[in-house]
Amino acid sequence: MSALDGNSTTGLLEAGVAEFGGRAYGLEPLVLPPDPVRGSDDAHLTRRYAELLGPGAGPDAEPPRAPGALGPLKAADSEEELFWFRWITGHQLTFLLWRELGRRAAEAVAPAPPDEVAAVTRLVRGYSAMLLYTASCTRDVYHRIVRPSMALHHPAFSGAWARDYGPVRALLRGRLPAAWSDGADALLEECALNEVVHEGIATKLVPDAPSLLQTAAGNGRTLPRDVRAVLFDTYFLTLRAPCSPTEVAAQLLRRIRAVREDLAVNDLYPAGTSSRAEKPDTLRTGRVVGIERAVPRLLASIARDSVRRTAPEAPAPTRAFEHPLEGSGSHGA
Predict the structure, then answer these.
(1) For residue 320, is pLDDT > 70?
(2) Could you give the CA distance from residue 224 to residue 141 in angstroms, rounded to a whole number?
């Protein structure tokens, strides 16, 4: 029996709601367990998300278009509707990618399987893709809608409060597990490119403004880090509660399906908006543009990497896995 029963959030949604969020460009809550979980090989996922996980599809194959993830296939009614969907859903997908990256790092043992480092490299590139996706909003929408909403949630709202970034912060800065020494050069290059994308996003959205955290410095007492982590989660509709590996995987796949559907309809930089023209030079290089063009294919590859078709023969290695809450996470401020 599938772990997506009627008691799970995803099970309830899949039972009665065909499209993501129940409407075009709707939002869904993300439920993440307090501890890392292994990948899932539940047959339900293979059937439900066949367009992402179909047999015989290689990591570079272009999957068919997702069937109606966002309801009727139409453009968004407004820039605000589209970019708010991207801001929340793209961050949720980022949290899932961080968790999968952290899980793989925590379980890394030598010799690493041949495809392990390649899968990790795709996860880092997927994070870069989500930075570009969430920050595809126009500067006007960011300063008129997104930034004020974060400031109202908390004046010092910061990506440094992201709970899931801590376990991967060192990795993204180039400190890799020894088990990944084979293929480390490509992974290190991907981490360096991620930093370039991150800095480019900041230049695009807030070229002349300090972060909310810097603006609010000295204004009020600093909240305990656990409280800051909860505030960050609640802004992005994220809850922490026990849930199965299958439900975590299904939530990843639902968001990948919805993002791919959005891009198929609207493109990364929708026609008629100023977003593409606002890109700084650092986001116009061939390497960054290559990420932008490959987002749907990249996400489908990550989906196949993250959902295990074959149950592992041995239990996962038991090693400490900490959840530090500090870090300079997503570009949420």
Answers:
(1) no
(2) 31
